[in-house]
Amino acid sequence: VGAIYEGEGKTLLVFFPGEQNPHSVLETLFGMGLPEWQAFLRQTDLLETEILAKAKDGTLVKAIARKSQRQIDQHVSWKVFKRDGYRCRYCANDDVPLTVDHLVRWEEGGPSIEANLVSACKKCNKIRGNMDYAAWLKHPAYRDTSRRCTPEVRAANEALVATLDKIPRVVHIKSR
């Protein structure tokens, strides 16, 4: 198990720690230990995900793996910002840079479509983190920050909970 990198006419197979395969048909093999992999992944991707897995002997091992990139079409983002009045749907702030927040989290197959996105300032988006949307609306942090929102915006946020099941999920099929 490892990663394949291609570029400039070369293919490089980089094995995960302890996964060397001397019978590979690729022209270039490269092995790194766990510290080298950790340093490499931190240098190539600042978004880290911890993956826990069991080794062949049954012990728990940990690897840091790169997340899939998620590009949100800027046209979609700007439609969401416009729809939400160019303000954060959670705190009503309109004088800070906005991001879009997935109602159904991207990691759970939530697509980057208007129906699954709301405008959020970076602070609120970070505070919500990976919290389920319905749980977020009940969280003390949301109740505190949403005090600046109009009753209509708070009601609209709560109404979104009923739409979550209608949002299509993106299924990522892993192949061997």
Tell me the strand order in the biggest sheet.
1-2-3
Poorly predicted residue ranges: 46-51, 172-176
Shape: elongated
Q: Major sheet: size, sense and barrel closure?
A: 3 strands, mixed
| Share in helix | 25-40%
What structural category characterises the helix and strand content? alpha+beta
How big is the Rg? Answer: 21 Å
Quickly count the helices. 6
Number of DSSP-assigned strands:
7
Q: Roughly what fraction of the amino acids lie in strands?
A: 15-25%
Distance between the termini: 10 Å
Order of helices and strands: EEEHEEHEEHHHH
What is the overall pLDDT average? Answer: 80
Which descriptors apply to this entry?
23% strand, alpha+beta, 6 helices, 3-stranded mixed beta sheet, two-stranded antiparallel ribbon, 176 residues, disordered C terminus
Task: Note down, in words, how this protein is organized.
It is a single chain. The protein has 176 residues and is an alpha+beta fold. It contains six helices and seven strands; from the N terminus they run βββαββαββαααα. The protein has helices at 34-44, 74-83, 122-128, 133-138, 140-145, 151-159, and strands at 2-7, 10-15, 28-31, 48-54, 60-66, 98-102, 117-121. A hairpin with a 5-residue loop joins strand 4 (48-54) and strand 5 (60-66). The termini are close together.
